[in-house]
From TrEMBL:
Gene Ontology biological process terms, A to Z: DNA recombination; double-strand break repair
Gene source species: Streptomyces auratus AGR0001
Protein name: DNA repair protein RecO
Record keyword DNA damage present: yes
Residues of the DNA replication/recombination mediator RecO N-terminal domain: 1-67
Stored HAMAP family: RecO
Annotated keywords: DNA damage, DNA recombination, DNA repair
Pfam families the UniProt entry points to: RecO_C, RecO_N
CC annotations in GO: bacterial nucleoid
Length: 248
């Protein structure tokens, strides 16, 4: 029997039996972990209140053997709140739907349990912190998170040089299959011609230029979101259920 301690973000919970839950977390040191939290559905359980989606927690796990990820689910025996991001997210519909899409994205990009994904973890912590504080429009925070999640997982789109031949930009055409913008010679069937403002917005979100992103017009933000969604779905090979509820 072994004890493991890690900090992580609660991605989702599932009912188990009459009073227990299965908690799915994205942790700093062990990647995605599923664990059983006993008795957390009881009304007076303070332990359960700490293990809600969006919570950033320090958790102790109890597992059989020398590895956290084994044949059975480990037990979540202790948790301490690091940051309760949910309090600033769940009371606002736009923040809540954006945050839910962020949690689902993080889980989809960490589909192998026990494999560290530190960049994805840090990206999620930063994204939820920004969302909870209301520093930027929720849909912009979400699109920035989606683009950066794609980048840290090896799918960074190009918004300047041609994604196929490297021809310096600006380039007019955008193709999800090609990996971003392309020149006229590399244009493929199904390419679209987005506005230069939408491309500039996506580039700003990817690089963290919030001054440019916050100044964008709503119509260009909607156009950019459509490109991000299409690009994400292409690489995940199936859509995110939570994206349909996000306000644009």
């Amino acid at each position: 029997m072994s004890l493991f301690r890690d900090d992580g973000i609660v991605l989702r919970t599932q009912k188990l039996g009459e009073a227990d839950r299965i908690i799915t977390l994205l942790t700093r040191g062990h990647g995605r972990v599923r664990a059983v939290a006993r008795g957390v559905r009881r009304t007076k359980s303070k332990f359960g209140a700490r293990l809600e989606p969006f919570s950033h927690v320090d958790v102790q796990f109890y597992a059989r053997g020398s590895e956290l990820i084994g044949r059975g689910l480990p037990l979540c025996t202790q948790s301490e709140t690091i940051a309760a991001y949910g309090s600033g997210i769940v009371t606002d519909y736009a923040r809540y739907t954006a945050g839910t899409a962020m949690l689902e994205t993080a889980e989809r990009f960490t589909d192998h349990e026990g494999e560290p994904a530190v960049q994805q973890y840090l990206l999620l912590v930063g994204g939820l912190r920004t969302l909870a504080r209301g520093e930027h429009e929720p849909h912009l925070v979400l699109d920035a998170f989606l683009l950066r999640s794609l980048a840290v997982n090896g799918y960074a789109p190009s918004f300047d040089g041609c994604a196929r031949c490297g021809m310096p930009g600006p380039n007019r055409f955008f193709s999800v299959a090609s990996g971003g913008v392309t020149c006229g010679d590399c244009r493929v069937a199904g390419s679209v011609v987005p506005s230069s403002e939408a491309i500039a917005l996506l580039s700003a979100l990817l690089t963290g230029d919030w001054e440019t992103a916050d100044a964008c017009e709503a119509r260009h933000a909607r156009e950019g979101s459509g490109l991000v969604t299409a690009y994400l779905h292409w690489h995940l090979e199936r859509g995110l259920r939570s994206l349909r509820y996000v306000e644009k």
